[in-house]
Amino acid sequence: MDPRGKVAILTGGARIGQTVATALARRGCSLALTYRRSRDAAESTAEAARRLGVRAETFRADARKEDEVSGVVDQTVRALGGLDILVNMASIYVRTPLDEMTGDDWSEAVDSDAKSALLFALKSAPHMKRAGAGRIINFSDWLPVSRRPRYPGYSLYYVAKAAVAGLTETLALELAPEILVNAIAPGPIIPAPDLTADEEAKVVAATPLRRWGGAEEIAKAILFLVETDFVTGECLRVDGGRHLY
Question: Which of 56, 71, 96, 240 could bond to 31 as cystine, CB 3.0-4.6 Å?
Answer without folding.
Answer: 56
